[in-house]
Design brief:
mainly alpha; single chain
Length: 396
């Protein structure tokens, strides 16, 4: 197997490919069977650290932040970085603003519908929900581009307005009465006091979805999202994408590389601390499933730190050993994401049909789901490698 990296297009940010590829591989190799980490930890009750590690591979129930909660923010953030590069590249090639905007609109519509399609892949009818990461990116893509065209000051101002405005949207919304039936809307009163404004399925975004999603044809009326996610999450996650576009603009600038690195790290640490300060001061909780402003700041800060660290290692120091598996996926993220949703179950079914269950039980039953996840990730990586060797890249 030839693992020599092909030279990417001029000006391509290799650290972004590594970040994107690492995130996608983590998802592809860990997501299909969600209980794998907990099963392993449960087999070793005398090792409590394993349960702590297992919690990193499942979303927190409501408030907090673990590794698994960083996957979607990373996607949103990297879309912002990529847009800054792709739009600038198109402009340099001579594409008119009108042509670029038309492509942005087309991509936004395609992403929204792709998210609906993937949510409906194993359903009996179209599942019209818009909280999926792909649909969320599509909903925010046009305003992201328009704000990016406004320059740095416009983007920074937009982040502030979005986060403050969205905080007010929830903070000023009347709290439900004592007779509010959380169970009927699959919700839960996780918080008391002021933070109760951000309880599950009781805030303004929940009621917006009860109106919006019931406008679409449905087998049954939409009551609530089981996980507490909302369509309007795309509004505060737009701030996350703008953080990415600002980072992309910085990395394209003529500033010295070391200055770019320090700026990314400093802003990343600062935003991360600010997000948690809002949480501990009782101003705004860190809740991924509502994409609260505090979560947007904390997770966006971590994204800046991750990208900055990879930029320093891969692009500045030129250390590329071991990056090939991530670049192969990072240059084809849409392909592996779609294949993961459409082929994951089929891959395991086919392997079990021809090989039997034995290969997945070689280390014992606690590791069965883990090995199945790894098998899915490995086969999807091989498909991406085949596409990479033939320079086939799925684009919208």
């Amino acid at each position: 197997m030839n693992t020599q990296l092909k030279t990417p297009a001029t000006g391509r940010l290799l650290s972004l490919d590594v970040y994107r590829g690492g995130t996608m591989l983590l998802l592809a190799a860990c997501d299909h069977y969600g209980d794998w980490a907990r099963n392993i930890a449960a087999a070793y009750p005398q090792q409590p650290w394993l349960m702590s590690l297992a919690r990193q591979f499942e979303h927190v129930e409501w408030s907090g932040l673990v590794l698994w909660d960083m996957i979607q923010p990373s996607f949103m953030f990297m879309v912002g970085v990529a847009l800054a590069y792709s739009a600038a590249s198109r402009a340099r090639r001579g594409d008119s603003p009108r042509k670029i905007f038309g492509h942005v609109v087309w991509r936004a519509i395609a992403l929204v519908l792709l998210g609906v399609f993937l949510r409906s892949a194993h359903a009996h009818s179209t599942n019209w929900t818009l909280e999926d990461v792909v649909s969320q990116i599509g909903l925010g893509y046009v305003p992201l581009y328009l704000l990016w065209r406004g320059g740095v000051r416009v983007q920074v101002a937009a982040i502030v307005v979005i986060l403050v405005g969205y905080w007010l949207f929830f903070a000023l919304w009347p709290l439900p009465g004592e007779d509010y039936d959380y169970a009927a809307v699959k919700g839960a009163p996780f918080f008391t006091g002021f933070f109760a404004h951000w309880n599950m399925n009781s805030g303004p975004a929940h009621f917006f979805d009860q109106w919006l999603l019931n406008l679409f044809p449905r087998a049954e009326p939409f009551i609530a999202n089981d996980g507490g996610y909302n369509t309007l999450n795309f509004v505060p996650s737009l701030a996350t994408m703008l953080m990415g576009s600002l980072a992309g603009g910085l990395l394209q600038s003529e500033r010295p590389g070391k200055q770019k690195l320090l700026t990314l790290l400093a802003w990343g640490v600062g935003l991360f601390c600010l997000g948690w300060a809002l949480h501990y001061l009782g101003i705004c909780p860190v809740v991924k499933k509502l994409w609260t402003p505090a979560f947007a700041l904390a997770s966006g800060g971590l994204c800046l730190v991750i990208l900055g660290s990879l930029y320093g290692i891969v692009d500045l120091a030129g250390y590329r050993r071991g990056t090939f598996p991530f670049v192969v996926v990072g240059m084809n993220p849409l392909a592996i994401y779609v294949l993961m949703h459409l082929m994951g179950g089929w891959i395991i079914h086919t392997l079990t049909t021809h090989l039997g269950p034995g290969p997945f039980l070689i280390f014992g039953e606690p590791y069965e789901l883990f090995l199945k996840n790894l098998a899915i990730g490995a086969i999807l990586w091989l498909i991406c490698w085949w596409m990479y060797r033939r320079q086939i890249f799925l684009r919208l």
